[in-house]
């Protein structure tokens, strides 16, 4: 009897051990609520690759951007007292007219429904601009649009990094180029409040800042140049170069979208 009890204890211990080892596998494989499960739940198949909820959200955001930034840019071209603001408005109109053509083509192919009006927040921004005048108008125009472009820039980069859909990837590439151009033109106005942008970002940050220690007043040793070894036959050129005028310009020339 003692031998039988001992065998039963051993068997029970083995079962318990197996259960403990198997539990992590059961608990994390195909479990609803995880990132992978959420991705799969919001994804549909298309001939251009899987289309996720984040992909569809970007498509809608590109459309929404044009619905308020085209009238904002047109208003700047008509009302702004400075050439820099008018130039930024010109880029908004041209860039988002082009992007709207592209996003409507992509949405039609993917079956994504697009809005036809700016969202309430965007309409509020347009109302703010309409009510402003003079230098107040210039500051509002530069900062409202620079802030919104900076936030969507990060969203575009994330989708460009993670999407498995070729149409969305192309749209994200085009949008990235256009948004960078608009950010550049808005910064060229000299009216962007970078302190306010940094303060807002710091207010939403959850992690402690990282990086090298602050300067101690001494000149650091000069780092060695990062250059290729040997003599590779490299023929490409940097994509963005300084201009003769203040600020920088972004080359947004690209083929027209296919229908």
Question: What does this molecule look like?
Answer:
α3 (53-79) packs antiparallel against α4 (83-110), α4 runs antiparallel to α7 (166-187) and α6 packs antiparallel against α7. This protein is mainly α and 259 residues long. The protein is built from 8 helices and no strands. It has helices at residues 2-28, 35-41, 53-79, 83-110, 120-131, 134-162, 166-187, 194-204. The radius of gyration is 27 Å and the shape is globular. The longest helix has 29 residues, at 134-162. The protein starts with a helix and ends in a 55-residue tail after the last helix. The model is unreliable at 20-30 (pLDDT under 50).
Q: Oligomerization state of this entry?
A: single chain
- Give me the count of strands: 0
Main sheet record? none
Radius of gyration: 27 Å
Overall geometry comes to: globular
Structural class: mainly alpha
In angstroms, what separates the terminal alpha carbons?
A: 83 Å
Q: What amount of the residues lies in strands?
A: under 5%
Report mean pLDDT, rounded to a whole number. 85
Discrete helix count: 8
Share of residues in helices = 55-70%
Low-confidence stretches: 20-30
What is the element string, with H for helices and E for strands? HHHHHHHH
């Amino acid at each position: 009897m003692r031998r039988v009890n001992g065998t039963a204890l051993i068997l029970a211990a083995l079962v318990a051990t197996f259960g403990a080892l198997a539990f992590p596998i059961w608990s994390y494989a195909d479990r609803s609520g995880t990132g992978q499960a959420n991705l799969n739940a919001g994804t549909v198949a298309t001939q251009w690759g899987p289309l996720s909820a984040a992909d569809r959200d970007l498509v809608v955001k590109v459309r929404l951007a044009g619905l308020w930034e085209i009238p904002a840019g047109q208003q700047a071209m008509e009302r702004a007292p400075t050439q820099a603001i008018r130039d930024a408005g010109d880029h908004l109109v041209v860039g988002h007219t082009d992007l709207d053509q592209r996003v409507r083509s992509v949405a039609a192919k993917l079956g994504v429904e697009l809005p036809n009006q700016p969202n309430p927040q965007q309409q509020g921004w347009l109302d703010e601009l309409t009510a402003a005048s003079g230098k107040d108008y210039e500051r509002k125009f530069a900062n409202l649009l620079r802030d919104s472009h900076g936030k969507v820039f990060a969203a575009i980069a994330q989708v460009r990094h993670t999407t498995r859909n070729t149409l969305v990837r192309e749209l994200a590439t085009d949008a990235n180029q256009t948004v960078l151009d608009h950010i550049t033109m808005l910064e060229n106005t000299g009216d962007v409040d970078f302190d306010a942008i940094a303060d807002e970002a710091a207010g939403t940050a959850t992690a402690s800042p990282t990086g090298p220690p602050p300067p101690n007043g001494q000149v650091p040793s000069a780092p060695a140049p990062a250059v290729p070894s040997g003599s590779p036959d490299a023929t490409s050129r940097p994509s963005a170069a300084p201009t003769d005028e203040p600020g920088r310009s972004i080359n947004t020339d690209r083929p027209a979208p296919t229908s």
